[in-house]
Amino acid sequence: MMMNWFELTQNWAQAFPRVKSRFPQLDEADAPYLKLDRSRFEAYLAEKHQLTLTEAREEFEDFLFVESLSREIAD
Q1: Please, which pLDDT band fits residue 1 given cuts at 50, 70 and 90?
Q2: What b/e sequence results for 54-67 when a residue is b if at least 16 CB atoms lie within 10 Å of its CB, and e otherwise?
Q3: By CB neighbour count within 10 A (0-12 exposed, 13-18 middle, 19+ buried), where does 10 fall?
C-alpha cells in the first residue's frame, strides 16, 4: 500500500529528514507550516526546486512510492 500524505505527516519529525534528503532546498523552519496542506507543500517544492507544479507533484508522488517500498521491505 502506497504511503499517503496523512501517514507521512503523522510522524513528520521522523519523516522530515528523508523528505529533506530528497528535496534538499526545504527549509526546516518552514516545515510546521508546510505539513498542514499537501497542495501548499507541493507549491513550495516547486518554488524551492525550480519545478513546475506538475513536476513537483510527480516528484513528491515518486518520493511517497519509494517510501512505501522501503516500509514494505522493513516489515
Answers
A1: confident
A2: eebbebbeebbeeb
A3: exposed
Q: Report how far residue 23's alpha carbon sits from residue 59's, in angstroms, rounded to the nearest whole number.
A: 9
* 55 contact partners, CB below 8 Å, separation of at least 6: 46
The C-alpha atoms of residue 56 and residue 35 are separated, in whole angstroms, by 15
Mean pLDDT of 34-48: 93
Instruction: Please count the residues of the chain.
Output: 75
How confident is the model at residue 20, as a pLDDT?
Answer: 95
The pTM assigned to this predicted structure is 0.88
Q: How far apart are CA 9 and CA 47, in angstroms?
A: 21
For residue 29, what is the DSSP state? G
pLDDT, residue 32, reads 82
Cell of 57: 507533484
